Amino acid sequence: MARPPKAAPAPVLPSSPAAALAAYGRVEPKLLELGPEDLVTVYVEVPRAVSSVLSALPHLRELRDEIVRDLPNHPIEMLDELEDYALAAWYADLLYSTPASELDAKKLTDDAGTLREGLLVAAEALAYRNLLDKQRVADIRKGKGHTDLASDLIALAELFRGSWDKVRAKTAVEDEELERAADLGVRLLAALAAKPGKGSSAAPKITDASDRRARAISLVAKAYEECRRAVAYLRWHEGGDGDLAPSLLQKPRGRPRNAEKAAAAASGAAAEAPSKAAADEAAAADGGALPAPEPANDAAPVASA
Questions:
Q1: How many angstroms separate the Cα of 17 from the Cα of each of 147, 190, 192?
Q2: Cα-Cα-Cα-Cα dihedral of 180, 185, 188, 193, to 10°?
Q3: CA distance 275 to 282
Q4: Among the residues of the chain, which ranges form H helices?
Q5: Torsion of CA 150, 152, 158, 163, to 10 degrees
Q6: Could you read off the pLDDT of 26-35 as tens digits, one per residue?
Q7: How far is CA 115 from CA 104, 136, 173, 195, 218, in A?
């Protein structure tokens, strides 16, 4: 009997640029050791990949003792350092996706503060009428400091979006403000991550943003895959554990882009088959020979999204 599927863990995203910067500093020596042959292709966006790793991490850590006991040759440091790898990849992606011209922390902070206050006032009015979650709004109001400011903007955009059909006609907040809040929050996080704080090490030695990002995501993806292999072995008779630790290296399966056309063509061919068969039989009855069957096209590629 197949075991019932487990509930997927809630998405987890880094919230501290300072922690991400520190993790990158610890990881960069390993990134510098990677050669072109060590880089891999990851088939999901970096933030989503990082979220998958961080979401699965508590479950993977629960199995650490079993891995050490039953798989003595497994590189356990890949699990022990997996969080650092994920945070480093997130940091590298932030710097890659945000142009240097948009990393003016002071300007971003000024803009973010004004936008946050306007959205919070609107959110509190809606929460008073029980149209938004009062506790979530109160938690956002407690935020202090630049990191919280950035996270609050992202949280407010998500809060409004989650109930947008219900509240859009009852608030002066507009779609454009929510889009701007989410974008500004991410850019401010990037600016904070790019600015080393007190006691931090020097700027990253890998100066090319694209190369830095490729190395960082390759490191976390390969380490994550090793962890998945260990868990799959330990839980093989229970069906593995792919539902909690999806691969980052496997190309997602999906309906082929031209699946509808292919289905229509197949349907048309099936409809024509009876009439063609009848015509062939009639020709044979008149003394003709049945046409030779067409060879199967076993070499046709299988499309995947």
A1: 7, 7, 6
A2: -150
A3: 11
A4: 17-33, 46-62, 64-70, 77-80, 82-97, 105-128, 134-141, 145-162, 164-167, 175-194, 209-234, 259-285
A5: -150
A6: 999 999 999 9
A7: 17, 18, 11, 22, 36
Helix, strand, or coil (residue 247): coil
Q: How confident is the model at residue 102 (pLDDT cuts 50, 70, 90)?
A: low
pLDDT at position 109 over 70: yes
Does this model's pTM top 0.85? My answer is no
User: DSSP class of residue 153?
Assistant: H
* Tokens representing residue 251 in the block: 């190309």
Residue with tokens 């202090």: 144
List, for residues 223-273, the tens digit of each pLDDT value. 999 999 999 898 888 776 555 557 788 776 654 444 444 444 444 444 444
